[in-house]
Amino acid sequence: MTYLRPVRVEDKSRALSVEELKQRGNVMITAIQKSGLDAVRLSLLSDFVANRASVTPAKLRQWRADVRTAIEAWRQVESLCTELLNEVERTSKNRTP
Predict the structure, then answer these.
(1) What value does the mean pLDDT take over residues 21-42?
(2) Within 1-97, where are the H helices?
(3) How far apart are CA 28 and CA 10, in angstroms?
(4) Which of 19, 15, 10 lies closest to 92 in space, CA to CA?
């Protein structure tokens, strides 16, 4: 599954003002929450707790693919969180005399 970030890319050469950070933060938090919900949904693999008599190689491959998809979704959440934290830190550094 491919994830496209729903936010525009900001100019990284300057720190945001506090007001700009609030606006950007609100957009980023919404994206983080949506990505987080997707990641949780993809992580809830009922096949892992289902009582099965046997597991086939095909089923193992499917599990592995499902796990990889969930991992990628969590990486997206982590990436968005890191991006917002970087913006917060950049703005904080410029506010400190």
Answers:
(1) 95
(2) 18-43, 57-95
(3) 12
(4) 15
DSSP-H helix ranges across 44-56? none
Identify the CA nearest to 69 among candidates 49, 46, 45: 45
Tokens of 33: 């929450």
What amino acid occupies position 20? E
State the pLDDT confidence band at 94, using cuts at 50, 70 and 90: confident
Is the pLDDT at 74 greater than 60, yes or no? Answer: yes
Separation between Cα atoms, residue 67 and residue 24, nearest integer Å: 31
Distances in Å between the Cα of 94 and the Cα atoms of 18, 22, 84 are 10, 15, 16
> 0.85 cut: is pTM over it?
no
